[in-house]
Amino acid sequence: MPHSDDLLWGAVGDISRFAALLTMAELGLADHLTQGPLGSAELAGRCGAHAPSLRRVLRELAGLGVIRSAGPDAYELTERGAPLRSDVTDSVRSSIRMLGEEGFWYAMGMLPATVRDGSSAFVKRHGHVYDYLANKPASSRLFDDYMTARAIPFTEGLANRYDFPENVTMVDVGGGKGHILATVLHANPTMRGILVDLEHVTGRAAQTLAAEGLADRSEVVTGDFFDAVPSGGDVYLLASVLHNWDDEEALRILRNIRQAMNPGGRVLLLEVALPDDEAPHLGKDIDMRMLAIFNGGTERTRKEFATLFAQAELALSDIVELGSGASLIEARPR
């Protein structure tokens, strides 16, 4: 093999390593190994796999340190592999399965074609990602699990690190099933919440808030944030919303919020704020997925957020890094 940069050859190997982890996640190997070591033939029988093929994948997984040898042709789960279990709070199993889902895998493989003409090859083949998921219930459940796991650092950071004023109303714009709003309301007992989203989502949001005992402090509204958002809010939250849209559409959302908010109100974004320089950042990896799957969806730099806010008569006032690539971005009226 010719000498080359370790980073480049590492990237070549990454696809094989990811494929092995995807196989582990799809077959539920970590769940099968939870109770203790298993021989490869027995493990293959439990997960419905071809034993000789599985044996080769186990060899790769042992090299990654997520399993280890536990005797002749037997393996056990390691601490490093534990997050691949489906029954742990920090499980990454659904996230890996989602990234290896047929359409998403196609999208990443077709990234060169997307870059050539500036239009997502995924969208050309499958349409908008949410329409695609609506027609594939199993993939949609995976996506929901993936987004729930992805939202954990955002949600915990918002609830634990942002100082909300007393007796305010927060409007969760595009609030989905209501998990983020519920977390914030529990952490701020004097706050009231309004969740606005499309009709096919709001029923589940109302159920979530009721199950959390928050029905008396919350309201669920059906609406399209491109048309309008509920007025009279003190805090408007957009959690992983703007990155789905290009600047023109993102600006429409922000202008609707600026028009609806109370004087002295604020906008909070839970997004990825990319560095303005060339420093490595998890958000740049995520941005490749946004480029591949959406037409116009993008992660933005701090400077790009500031420019977008200014066009909506808002001013960037603070950015708090929450870890795991998550950022809490605050803007206030200019």
From TrEMBL:
<dbReference type="InterPro" id="IPR036388">
    <property type="entry name" value="WH-like_DNA-bd_sf"/>
</dbReference>
<keyword id="KW-0808">Transferase</keyword>
<dbReference type="InterPro" id="IPR001077">
    <property type="entry name" value="COMT_C"/>
</dbReference>
<feature type="domain" description="O-methyltransferase C-terminal">
    <location>
        <begin position="111"/>
        <end position="312"/>
    </location>
</feature>
<dbReference type="GO" id="GO:0008168">
    <property type="term" value="F:methyltransferase activity"/>
</dbReference>
<dbReference type="Pfam" id="PF00891">
    <property type="entry name" value="Methyltransf_2"/>
</dbReference>
<protein>
    <submittedName>
        <fullName>Methyltransferase</fullName>
    </submittedName>
</protein>
<dbReference type="GO" id="GO:0032259">
    <property type="term" value="P:methylation"/>
</dbReference>
<dbReference type="InterPro" id="IPR012967">
    <property type="entry name" value="COMT_dimerisation"/>
</dbReference>
<feature type="domain" description="O-methyltransferase dimerisation">
    <location>
        <begin position="19"/>
        <end position="81"/>
    </location>
</feature>
<keyword id="KW-0949">S-adenosyl-L-methionine</keyword>
<dbReference type="InterPro" id="IPR016461">
    <property type="entry name" value="COMT-like"/>
</dbReference>
<keyword id="KW-0489">Methyltransferase</keyword>
<dbReference type="InterPro" id="IPR036390">
    <property type="entry name" value="WH_DNA-bd_sf"/>
</dbReference>
<dbReference type="InterPro" id="IPR029063">
    <property type="entry name" value="SAM-dependent_MTases_sf"/>
</dbReference>
<dbReference type="Pfam" id="PF08100">
    <property type="entry name" value="Dimerisation"/>
</dbReference>
